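Example 3.2
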Amino acid sequence: MDLVTVWFVVIAFFWIGYFILDGFDLGVGTLLPLIGRNEVDRRVLINAIGPVWDGNEVWLVVAGAATFAAFPLWYATMFSGFYLLFFAILIALIFRGLAFEYRGKHDYASWRRRWDAAIVVGSAVPAFLFGVIFGNVVGGSALESISGDASNTDSINYVGNVFGLLNPFSLVLGAMTLTVFATHGAMFLALKTSGSVHAVARRTATQIGLVAAVFAVVALLWAQTFSGRVAITLPLVLLAAVFWLAGLAMNVRDRNGWAFLLSAVTILFAVAALFLGLYPNVMPSSIDSAFNLTVTNASSQSYTLTVMTIVAVVMTPLVLLYQGWTYWVFRKRLTSAMIPVGTL
């Protein structure tokens, strides 16, 4: 396996890690008003993800940085063509982070309601738009060479508009990521909490999980029409469906650890199927396959990839160990009784 393929796999790994880890806390934020029926319960939800949400977002930063370094043309084309979508995600994540820090600064109900709204919007918007973005990457974008020369990859740009990004396939994929993350978040809350929040989280996970299953079946089977490796990707999609249904069954039986684990495995197989179906392209063109960006024509030089590989081999295990330690330290279940009334 050459280095360009290695780094395509590594970037897929980073996105899988991000969707599994930040996916559940985006889901928790999205469900804040549904599961958090009162101020005490909402504090339980926020405290459940409080020690880990910012660390989870590091995976997004690393995925972006790795794309920039390993496939600069992919990064430049995607981030410039999808600029408004990424900008909306950035603004949403900024206000979400501010909300976690500022909602408890004043003891006014109206103050907390506004920041709670920021948490919900700041979680739901990225959860939806990441699916829209991946829908345009997997399903193809309006890429064309400005110079008219397909061999001049530096001149290949996105020539569509933001409305072209909101096509039916990308919207369905966005609905899938939004509902899957919400279910994943509810399963995390069922694992992480006890009492009333636990009961509502389990019920919510089952309800939204069934809706997510419908969107996932439609989106992932639709994605097979763009895949060049249906013989590999379709079995992964079917495995994802089996694990998702098994996770919902475990949730009904109150086997919270298994439910959350199976939900995470589902995300792993689903995202892996999307990346495998995309390879060797990194951004296919919906105008002409001659304008496709591939792992070969969009990659950095071999020296850059070699240095990156050495750094990744050293640093990635350390990051995984540190994040694993963080989850172990904050593994205790939370209940409403742990929330001091005087600090609301």
